[in-house]
């Protein structure tokens, strides 16, 4: 039996579109075992056809890459990361499938090769990198290479995820983005993402407020999420250190001080009167990434 644990993630982090992502302490767990024949995936949404299941397709892609496959595989999944909410559920299933297949085949792929294959399947690296390596990770695609580096985050903050009861697919949420941006918008995001990384690494959390503003995706995607801008403004008014759209949404991620016990309760009261249901989850950064065994 092979046990694999993959964390959820929060990508983009304001201005770091398709570049920044951090791992969170919410996990999908996958138990792989060889069986005499067939492929069985248990514990995941039953209505999804096997061919559309990311664990299955990622596992098969990995067996193709490696050039061997066992006669049969059973995967038992304990899924805790909400699906299609901007918390890296897809990246987690892709990594579960790739890492599981690699382990069953005797681990021929290195971590770097796993990263490359999983990113090829996902299409961009910003969720895969933190889910695999843990922590806050910067990643870029350079031709067919993917470069990444982890950034140490100063102690003192935690994350409060506001998760609505409706889904938003990454495809839909990418369709609304502009094809071109102007020079000033480029400067806006470059300057803020630089400030953001410096503030997170040396603990100048007072600067998060100024560094999280994004003009590349949030203004467009926010319109797909009922009350997005009202909730964002409310969070700022309540004194959060930072707030941004997590990944492609619809989850809204707040950054607060580690010892803040008030915000969760107060934002809960505000969200309760809105027409959609919003779950509130307190999360911390995960530093382990994908763990085997
Ligand atoms: N960077 C990606 C996006 C993350 O915003 O579309 C979601 O997969």
Structure description:
The chain contains ten helices and eleven strands. The chain is an alpha+beta fold and 293 residues long. 35% of the residues lie in helices and 27% in strands. Helix 2 crosses helix 3. Strands 1, 2, 3, 4, 5, 6 and 11 form a seven-stranded mixed sheet that branches. The site of L-homoserine has 12 residues, from helix 5.
State mean pLDDT (0 to 100 scale). 95
Order of helices and strands: EEEHEHHHEEEHHHHHEEHEE
| Low-confidence parts | none
Biggest sheet character: 7 strands, mixed
Helix/strand class: alpha+beta
Topology at a glance:
Blueprint: E1 2-11, E2 20-35, E3 38-42, H1 54-66, E4 72-79, H2 89-104, H3 111-122, H4 128-133, E5 136-142, E6 145-151, E7 157-164, H5 170-175, H6 183-202, H7 208-211, H8 218-221, H9 228-237, E8 242-245, E9 252-257, H10 262-272, E10 278-283, E11 291-292
Parallel strand pairs: 3-4
Antiparallel strand pairs: 1-2, 1-11, 2-4, 2-5, 5-6, 7-9, 7-10, 8-9
Helix pairs in contact: 1-2, 2-3
The structure holds L-homoserine.
Key features of this structure:
293 residues; alpha+beta; 7-stranded mixed sheet; 4-stranded antiparallel sheet; 10 helices; 35% helix; 27% strand; globular; binds L-homoserine
Describe this structure in a few short sentences.
The protein has 293 residues and is of the alpha+beta class. The chain is 35% helix and 27% strand.
């Amino acid at each position: 039996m092979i046990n694999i644990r993959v964390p959820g993630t929060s990508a983009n982090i304001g201005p770091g579109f398709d570049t920044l992502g951090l791992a969170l302490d919410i996990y999908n767990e996958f138990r792989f075992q060889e069986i005499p024949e067939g492929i069985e995936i248990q514990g995941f949404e039953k209505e999804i056809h096997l061919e559309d299941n990311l664990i299955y397709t990622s596992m098969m892609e990995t067996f193709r890459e490696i050039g061997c496959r066992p006669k049969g595989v059973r995967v038992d999944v304990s899924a805790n990361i909400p699906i299609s909410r901007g918390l890296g559920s897809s990246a987690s299933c892709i990594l579960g499938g790739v890492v599981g297949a690699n382990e069953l085949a005797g681990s021929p792929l290195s971590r770097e090769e796993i990263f490359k294959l999983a990113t090829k399947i996902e299409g961009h690296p910003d969720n895969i990198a933190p889910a695999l390596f843990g922590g806050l990770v910067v990643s870029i695609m350079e031709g067919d290479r993917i470069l990444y580096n982890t950034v140490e985050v100063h102690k003192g903050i935690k994350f409060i995820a506001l998760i609505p009861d409706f889904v938003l697919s990454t495809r839909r949420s990418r369709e609304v983005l502009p094809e071109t941006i102007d020079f000033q918008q480029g400067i806006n995001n470059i300057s803020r993402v630089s400030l953001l990384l410096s503030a997170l690494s040396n603990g100048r959390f007072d600067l998060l407020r100024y560094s999280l503003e994004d003009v590349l995706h949030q203004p467009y995607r926010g319109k797909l999420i009922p009350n997005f801008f009202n909730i964002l403004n409310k969070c700022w008014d309540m004194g959060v250190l930072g707030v941004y759209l997590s990944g492609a949404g619809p989850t809204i991620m707040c950054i607060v001080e580690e010892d803040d016990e008030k915000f969760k309760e107060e934002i809960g009261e505000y969200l309760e009167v809105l027409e959609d249901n919003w779950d509130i989850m307190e999360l911390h950064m995960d530093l382990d990434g994908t763990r085997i065994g």
